[in-house]
Structure formats: C-alpha cells, structure tokens
Specification:
It contains six helices and seven strands. It has 209 residues and is α+β, with helices and mostly antiparallel strands. The chain has two domains: 130 residues, Calcium-transporting ATPase, cytoplasmic transduction domain A (Distorted Sandwich); 63 residues. Strands 1, 2, 3, 4, 5, 6 and 7 form a seven-stranded antiparallel sheet that branches. A hairpin with a 2-residue loop joins strand 1 and strand 2. Helix 4 runs antiparallel to helix 5.
C-alpha cells in the first residue's frame, strides 16, 4: 500500500491512482496487471534451513572474524580462536532463528491470502482471483471476507477487522472513514485494511493503493 494513502483525502487519492469509485475498466486492469505484476506476497522459493544457516556466514564482518580465527590458530592462539568461533557461531544461530521464523511467517500469511475478491470492474460487481487485483481496484468487503490486499477505505458501515496476524491483538479493530496524519503507525491506521486480515463485522468499500 502507498505509504501516504492513509493521509490523503479520498478524491486526491483516487486521482493519484487514476481511478474512480466505479472501479477500473477491464482493459486498464489488464494493463496494470502487466505493469505491476500479480498481487502475491514475495517469498523465496525452495530456501532450505541449511541454506538459511549457511547464509549467516556471508556477511563481511563474519568473514573477517573467520579470517581472524584462522590467523589465531596459525599463531597458536587457540583461546582467542575458540572465543571468536563461539561468537561467530552464536551470531549465526540467532540470525538463523530470526530469518527462519520470518520465512515461516511469510509462508503462513501466503496461505491465509484470500483466493478470490469482490471488486467493481466496468462499473459492475464481480469476483476475480485475488492475484489479479491491481492498484486502483475498488474492493467490496463484508463480514467473513479475507482482505485480498492492502487498501484504503472509502466507505465504512460498522466495519471491524481481525488484525491479530499483524499486531498480535485479539480484539477486532473498528475502522473509520477518516484522514490520518502522515506519521500514523501502521497499527493505528483505522482508515486502512491489510492483506491476510479478515472482516469480522460490518461492510465497507476500499481502493487498492
């Protein structure tokens, strides 16, 4: 989602996206799909745990420490070599755990992505594959829907969303049709909805930004 969409007036936002509340036409949507690519979370394919672990040793600082270990061994400073080796190994373990968890979290979010979305195209309501959504698309939301992509709300009717996957908060978030400060944190963007979260109550209309 555009980093400024939450702080823009609706008219200004739609103009910047060259979109209207009636939705894109099919031809323009296809053109944007070619330009921006499919609406999918970017994940590394086939990255094994071993590859992630070995990747921790590619950092220039780590390489310098490995060289220092070799030098220490060469001059028989075994205590220094063991100390540096311990630091390198612990650093690799911490880095591996963080990156591995991040990979798994991204995979989990990808599994939660809505397979289809209800949008306005050619002025008509229709269902499309979520991967075909593009910036400027108008998405219609109601209770039970999974959010197909990050979007700025244009209309809200008692809309609440579950954003636990992003924030860890179990309480549903009440959404509002308001303009927020540019400095508003993502967790406080009450006028926006986010990919892989879902609607628990109410309905709304949003533009993919």
């Amino acid at each position: 989602m555009s980093s400024e969409s939450h702080s823009m007036e609706k008219k200004q936002l739609l103009e910047s996206l060259k979109a209207t509340e009636k939705g894109l036409n099919t031809q323009e949507a296809e053109r944007r799909l070619q330009e921006y690519g499919p609406n999918e979370l970017a994940t590394k394919k086939g990255t094994s745990a071993l590859s992630i672990f070995l990747g921790q040793f590619k950092d220039i600082f780590v390489i310098m420490l490995l060289v220092a270990i070799c030098i220490s061994v060469a001059i028989n400073e075994l205590v220094d070599a063991a100390t540096i080796a311990t630091i390198v190994f612990l650093n690799a373990i911490v880095g591996f755990i963080q990156e591995y968890r991040s990979e798994k979290a991204m995979e989990a979010m990808k599994q939660l992505t809505a397979p289809k979305a209800r949008v306005l195209r050619d002025g008509k309501e229709q269902f499309i594959q979520s991967r075909e959504i593009v910036p400027g698309d108008i998405v219609l939301l109601e209770a039970g829907d999974r959010i197909p992509a990050d979007a700025r709300l244009l209309e809200v009717v008692d809309l609440k969303t579950d954003e636990a996957i992003l924030t860890g908060e179990s309480t549903a978030v009440a959404k509002k049709d308001v303009v927020l400060s540019e400095k508003t944190a993502v967790a406080d963007m009450k006028n926006s909805v986010f990919m892989a979260t879902h609607v628990t109550y109410g309905r709304g209309k949003a533009v993919i930004a």
